[in-house]
Design goal:
Blueprint lengths: L2 E3 L6 E3 L1 E4 L19 H13 L4 E3 L9 H13 L6 E6 L14 H15 L4 E6 L8 H14 L2 E7 L3 H14 L4 E7 L11 H8 L2 E5 L22 H4 L1 H7 L2 H16 L4 H10 L7 E3 L4 H8 L8 H10 L8 H10 L1
Parallel strand pairs: 3-4, 3-10, 4-5, 5-6, 6-7, 7-8, 8-9
Antiparallel strand pairs: 1-2
The chain binds NADP nicotinamide-adenine-dinucleotide phosphate (NAP).
Length: about 350
């Protein structure tokens, strides 16, 4: 396992981060109902990941009902006495209860959310505390000041953003700088071979400001594993048998062409499609660690192999070209003119 600095910080994380969104079997109210791993399987996946050298786990207060994913993660850490060897990341911001302040990025909600996460995770500190999505209703400065207080209190070590528009992220980074507050060191974002829109603005912004990118849904929810085939219905029990409209959203020429390229690279390198899709992300310079998702130890093993796979330049080029997308204005205008003049 390779260890990389988390953004421009000194913190070392494994290039694979274990995503905990699938941990536990939540009831029908949860979007993950019926497509998760029970507690025993979640424990087995944490055992296996740790044994393979993964030192980084990503969860969120909102995964599973009433913090189920955090509770399972906390129980495994306590049982195995692994807290000091792990980099533990969680998130706040989405709705945890029906009260007016049960959601959002206000100081009020953050102070409440952090206590809940610390309790469920059975720890006195969170290594990376992330805002799950920007909040239009709260001034960025209020959020940053509250997070800075948590760092100063020792409850949080580093802070990160997720699901931010580039203008807001850059505004946030400048606010932190101007007000001498701890600033985001990471951006957790939807990034994979079929979802590359963040390359327009967010990737250059992260490169300029030294943020490490943590791609979420790196297999596009399983689409890039190759188990969904053009014109064929999804296999029963798979994620997109439940979320059919998402699979419909992937059904276009460019995405099937991308999948063909992933398959041909996998064959050429005697590897698997999930490993190739993950290795493509790991080769992107601004990526610190890829947050993998799995529902069984065998899926996890297949995905862990992505960390060991070295993609030759020709394979990267093939995958980049097959999944290319139109950058649009002004990006293409700037790129083309810059080349000429
Ligand atoms: N910040 C955010 O807003 C956000 C959003 C989403 C996720 N995340 C983070 O990112 C992590 C990963 O997200 P994700 O679960 O969507 O990742 P993903 O890798 O894109 O999808 C994982 C799903 O794909 C299928 N799969 C995985 N490996 C496979 C394999 N080798 N062969 C066949 N199928 C395979 C499984 O679904 P089935 O077997 O059920 O089909 C699995 O549950 C989460 O745990 C969470 O930590 C963050």
């Amino acid at each position: 396992m390779e260890y990389r600095n988390l953004g421009k910080s000194g913190l070392k994380v494994s290039s694979i981060c274990l995503g905990a969104m699938t941990f536990g079997e939540p009831d029908a109210k949860s979007f993950m109902h019926g497509i998760s791993a029970d507690e025993k399987t979640a424990f087995a996946m944490m055992d296996r990941a740790f044994e393979a050298g993964v030192n980084f786990i990503d969860t969120a207060d909102v995964y599973g009902n009433d913090g189920l994913s955090e509770r399972i993660t906390g129980q495994w850490i306590a049982k195995n006495k692994k807290r000091d060897q792990l980099v533990l990341a969680t998130k706040f911001r989405f709705r945890m209860d029906a009260t007016p302040n049960g959601t959002g990025a206000s100081r009020y909600h953050i102070m409440q959310a952090v206590e809940g996460s610390l309790r469920r995770l059975q720890t006195d500190h969170i290594d990376l505390y992330q805002i799950h999505m920007q909040d239009y209703d709260t001034p960025e400065q209020e959020t940053l000041r509250a997070l800075d207080d948590l760092v100063r209190q020792g409850k949080v070590r580093y802070v990160g953003a997720s699901n931010y528009a580039a203008y807001r992220l850059v505004d946030s980074l400048w606010t932190s700088r101007a007000e001498h507050l701890h600033s985001f060191i990471t951006l957790q974002a939807h990034y994979n071979l079929v979802t590359r829109e963040l390359e327009r603005e967010l990737v250059p912004a992260c490169e300029k400001f030294g943020l490490g990118i943590l791609p979420w849904s790196p297999l596009a929810g399983g689409f890039l594993s190759g188990k969904y085939r053009r014109g064929q219905p999804p296999t029963d029990g798979s994620r997109y048998a439940k979320w059919k409209e998402r699979l419909d959203g992937f059904d276009n020429e460019r995405n099937w062409k991308t999948l063909d390229a992933v398959e041909s690279v996998a064959k050429e390198l005697n590897s698997t499609m999930p490993a190739v899709a993950l290795a493509w992300l790991l080769n992107k310079p601004s990526v610190s660690s890829v947050i993998i998702g799995a529902r069984s130890v065998s899926q996890l093993n297949e995905n862990l192999a992505g960390a060991e796979l070295k993609l030759p330049e020709a394979a990267m080029k093939l995958l980049d070209e097959a999944s290319a997308f139109s950058l649009g204005y002004p990006y293409e205008f700037i790129r083309n003119i810059q080349k000429k003049w």
